[in-house]
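Can't paste images in this forum, so I'm doing it all in text. The chain is below; anyone willing to post the predicted structure tokens underneath?
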Amino acid sequence: MFRRDGKRREMGLGSARDVGLAEARQKAEDARRLTAERQDPLESRKASMTRQKEAEEVPSFGAFADALVENIEGGFRNDKHVYQWKQTLGPAYCAKIRDKKLGEITTDDVLAVLQPIWQEKNETASRLRGRIERVLDAAKAKGLRTGENPARWRGHLDTLLPKRQKLQRGHHPAMPYTEVPAFLTELRTREAMAARALEFAILTAARSGEVLGAMWGEVDLKAEVWTVPANRMKAGREHRVPLAPPAIAILRALAALRPEDDDKGAYIFPGQRKGRPLSGMAMEMLLHRQKLEITVHGFRSSFRDWAAEETGFPREIAEAALAHVVGDATERAYRRGDALEKRRELMTAWAAHCQPKTVERWMET
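Text version of the structure:
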């Protein structure tokens, strides 16, 4: 019993069945101390219970990160980016913090995740840091944590971690262009959709995301042109790709397998889930299973090396075929065309170089 604002109040200390005599005495002493400090022990206990309940309701970093990726994956350009976010924020890299409550994540926790890979995998570590920062910022926006973001770089982690080594990634491992024809011969024996997507990527010298996100509505088989919209291009500009005969053959073979109710909004290289494209890692895994230490992106380098060393096509045409920005703003302003027909000659020559000696069954059907 105690008095508050001139009125007598009572506060229970718990059931005699659950609270022993010594614990009851301690609780009573704590309550008397609060009254001596002019605090209401009932209100104090209520506030403590509220804080405890809120703490119990705050999700773990792992659960919140997984939910956040699901919410924002629609803004990613392709499935590969979704995979990378899930992979880096998952147990493979964030095992030390995934079970921690969002409000408990500290700078030391973030460093424990980043330091083991900061030097060896600096690019991956840098991207992971940014993703952890994004997760914690989102948690703060939802009222699930307060204070500064422990994953912030400028003025914080940049004082605790070595400076990033720019260009650490180097070039994507590539196959020598002289070996590409033999590789395509073997590739055409495989019936997987990933094999067809990879061959199409090689023949068009396109990026993985551009190929995997390709839709039938983007292709004009009569004009033999594939138009990639600006929102799917790295440079943010529409890119027309002239299709050489082998690339057209791939499309015609796949078109014959399309369901009758497929519309122009369907993916050319569909995945296992209806209405979704082939996985962003499908082509990379195909190379991995063949124990090839190269990347899909590396075939763009194979194409570029072949164009420079084996042909007389101008550098600008080869760069345009790769959808690279060539020249300064003034030069680009005067060069309004995209040299489609000149690039068609280049891509036809590349396809001829890549063409195996024999045509496989899947292309004939």
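Strands lie at 2-4, 7-9, 219-220, 225-228, 239-242. The longest strand covers residues 225-228.
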